[in-house]
Amino acid sequence: MELRSSIESVKGIGEKTAKLFNKLHIYTVEDLIKAYPRDYLSYEEPRSLAKAPVGIRIALYLEIKTYVNTEKRGRYIITSLTAGDSVNTIKLVWFNSPFLRNVLKRGDRYVFVGTIKKKNNFLVMEMPEYYPKDKYKGMMTTMQPVYSLTSGLTNNSFQRAIRETGSLIRNITDPLPEKVRQEYKLMRLDEALFNMHFPQNEEVLKDAVRRLAFDEFAGFLLEVRKLREENSALSNTHPLSEAALIRADAFIASLPFSLTNAQKNAICDIKNDMSSDYVMNRLVQGDVGSGKTIIAVTALYMTALSGYQGVLMVPTEVLAQQHFKDIDGMLRGQGIRTALLTGSLSVKEKRVIYEKLKAGEIDILIGTHAVIQDKVEIKNLGLVVTDEQHRFGVRQREKLSEKGQDPHVLIMSATPIPRTLAIILYADLDISVIDELPASRKRVMNCVVDTSYRDTAYKFILKEIRAGHQAYIICPMVDSSEAVDAENVIDYSEELKAYYRDNARIEYLHGKMKDEEKNQILARFMNREIDILVSTTVIEVGINNQNATVMMIENAERFGLAQLHQLRGRVGRGSDSSYCIFINAKETEDSVKRLKVLENSNDGFYIANEDMKQRGPGDFFGIRQSGDMIFKVADIYNHADILRKAQDAVLKYGDELGLVQDNETVITTL
Ligand code: ADP
Ligand code: MG
User: Fold this and answer.
1) In a mutational test of the pocket of ligand 1, which residue from 257, 324, 331 has the highest number of ligand atoms less than 8 Å from its CB?
2) Could you tell which of 293, 411, 440, 568 is best to mutate to test the pocket of ligand 1, judged by most ligand atoms within 8 Å of the CB?
3) Would the CB of 260 count as within 6 Å of ligand 1?
4) Exposed end of the chain (fewer CB within 10 Å): N or C?
5) How many C-beta atoms lie closer than 10 Å to residue 398's C-beta?
6) Which of 554, 540, 628, 654 has its CA nearest to residue 595?
7) What mean pLDDT value characterizes the chain?
8) DSSP secondary structure, 440-454, as one string
């Protein structure tokens, strides 16, 4: 077994299990080792049933009071029993686990771990884990890794597979020289990898995360440095024409709104860059709704008028379609020929577009990563724009630039990175910041509440639906297979359908669905055929449904502030009043304080700064922020101090660090 061997070389993984891992994009032993847990569970002291709280994950030490009952209901086989202590009882229920009949016997005692729900005044725990008391005692002293799973693959078998790679991990040689590790107080790589999976305690885990974050940052910064060296002095072979500059002003004057000063400044920067002696490499950074699209459109328009072609690359198909419709609508009247290129076009449709691009008969091409495929040849590519940039790796950007002879590059990002960090992360780019929202924008109204407010929220959503509007509800998890105590999209939408019955059309969306399915759901949501979209954070980028006025976020305490802010940006995009309801399911002093920041501010930069201040470095327990850049472990908000260290190390040691970035694979699509 080596790092590069197929996972079938891991003891215990056969062909069938390997296929399941493949579904999670785990093909090699190295992939497996780098499939870090999504969370860690600590097992706490069992509580007494009389005092057990509803709705959060707890442990109970109980005696089984009845025989195990098994019945078939619809697609499910339901296994249930009653357990209790000397005073109280609770019903325990499992789905599709008939074998439990032979495991759990009347009179036996186990520690059951799960979440209590109240159903018609009865206490019920669904799918509890069960452990003999001695085993449980042992578990209480360690942290249990929780992995992202797929149906058929259990957390246990995942853990077992990782344990099998233990000796291999121990033999990994560390690329970082010892002196560097000492200088920056970094854990050895093999220790870090092992402790990511099986940490003894939070301290150790923190150090493991910091080490891996350092590698990611330093690798990234080395890459950025290389890009900067390659690009900084390229001469401008696509200067804007005088006529283009003038017609751009007329175009802007013809818009139904006047630009904010920040937008004007950004456009001015772009005009200067594209008319200068050197190629443009610019980042436009602006909060959601700050109006970045029109800036991209103006740049593309000027490019077309100067006789070159331009490309706009976006991370999702839905976003591509949306932009295509908007841009075509704005520019068709000006004689500009636009086209849409996405993965779902037929071969024939694609061929037509390829030919036109080669002949220079398309001025502006809009698309997903389909635009960087080898078949795409563009006659005279003058400008490449990428929207929501953090979803694309540095390499993808490069690949797109290679489609032409040193085209200008413009990157739009909604990730509100504090300026001090942006300068480090985007060292190869000039930056324009849009720090002003259009005056017409209505402030989203916020409330942070606990789960008892749900019913009120549902009634409120119904009122909005009756007024013709739509709503989003966000859950952190996809389905109940993930042993994490948080709402999941699939069960949640079932319950919601039962609640609303015929009063609302409800669908769900998550990242494990096929692209085609996702696109269909989103298209129907855009067409107002769906009233409530229950979704994971896959919808966080770009979706622009101006008719949606409510965003409700379950388990808001599990998300980072910057990510919550990004999610909130999906509403308040039209002229109607909009609302964001944050459900704080686990009210701790800390979660209340953090969510207060969102309640009181709609300013992404302020929120990002607060987030950094409040969480402090190395706070790994928050779910990682969006704007994920391309890092697996590192988080620019949590690990700002490590980012600075990595920068220092790159300046001091450069290639001696022995790190390479493996972001080749990182294109995330909806
Ligand atoms: P984002 O920065 O999130 O990409 P968009 O470019 O999608 O924001 O802009 C959001 C909405 O605001 C669009 O409907 C756009 O037409 C509108 N908009 C952009 N600039 C202005 C402005 N200066 N005044 C009023 N509305 C604007
Ligand atoms: Mg946008």
Assistant:
1) 257
2) 293
3) yes
4) N
5) 16
6) 554
7) 87
8) TPPPPEEEEE-GGGH
Distance linking the first and last C-alpha atoms of the chain: 34
DSSP-derived secondary structure letter, 125: E
Answer whether residue 625 shows pLDDT above 50. no
Query: Please, what sign has the CA dihedral across residues 203, 207, 209, 210?
Result: positive
Q: Residue 550's closest CA among 437, 454, 473?
A: 473
Integer Cα distance of 421 and 499 in angstroms: 46
259 touches ligand 1 (CB under 6 Å):
yes
The two structure tokens encoding residue 249:
């002003």
Q: What is the DSSP pairing of strand 364-367 with strand 122-126?
A: unpaired
Residue 232 contacts residue 658 (beta carbons within 8 Å): no
Q: Return the residue whose CA atom lies nearest to atom 16 of ligand 1.
A: 291
Give dist(CA 169, CA 155) in Å, integer.
Answer: 20
> Where is pLDDT greater, at 42 or 351?
351
Task: Name every residue whose Cβ is closer than 8 Å to that of residue 349 and which is 6 or more positions away in sequence.
Answer: none
Question: 451 alpha carbon to ligand 2 midpoint, in Å?
Answer: 32
> Cα separation of 268 and 134, whole Å?
69
Read off the pTM.
0.69
Q: How far is the CA of 114 from the centre of ligand 2 (A)?
A: 41
The ligand 1 atom at the shortest distance from the C-alpha of residue 440 is: 25
Whether the CB-CB separation of 130 and 93 falls below 8 Å is answered with no
Query: 669: pLDDT confidence band, cut at 50, 70 and 90?
Result: very low
Q: Is the CB of 17 under 6 A from ligand 1?
A: no
Q: What is the CA radius of gyration of the chain?
A: 27
Residue nearest to atom 15 of ligand 1 (CA): 291
Taking residues 166-174, what's their average pLDDT? Answer: 93
CA angle (125 as vertex; 502, 511 as ends), nearest 5: 55
Ligand 1 centroid to residue 670 C-alpha, Å: 22
pLDDT at 235 over 70: yes
Q: Which two tokens stand for residue 537?
A: 């954070």
Strands of 454-547 (E only): list them.
470-474, 506-509, 532-535
Ligand nearest to the CA of 387: 2
Please give the distance, rounded to the nearest whole angstrom, from the Cα atom of residue 164 to the centre of ligand 2: 45
Q: Using one digit for the tens of pLDDT, what is the confidence trace for 111-167?
A: 999 989 888 888 999 999 999 999 998 888 778 898 988 888 989 899 999 999 999
Q: Are 477 and 609 in contact (CB under 8 A)?
A: no
Residue with tokens 């992404």: 604
Q: Residue 561 burial by CB count (10 A; 0-12/13-18/19+): exposed, middle or buried?
A: buried
**Distance (Å) from CA 65 to ligand 1 centroid:** 62
pLDDT at 623 over 70: no
Residue range 562-589, pLDDT digits in tens: 788 888 989 988 888 999 999 998 877 7
| Vertex 256 angle, CA 252 and 260, to 5° | 60
> For residue 293, how far is its CA from the centre of ligand 1 (angstroms)?
7
Residue 97 structure tokens: 């686990």
Q: What is the DSSP letter of 415?
A: -
Q: What is the distance between the alpha carbons of residues 610 and 627, in angstroms, rounded to a whole number?
A: 16
242-253 vs 261-275: helix crossing angle, rounded to 10: 170
How many A from CA of 386 to the centre of ligand 1? 17
Run of H or E including 218: helix 202-231
- Cβ(360) to ligand 1 under 6 A? no
Q: What residue type is 456 in one-letter code? A: T
Q: Please indicate whether residue 415, judged by its CB atom, sits closer than 6 Å to ligand 1.
A: no
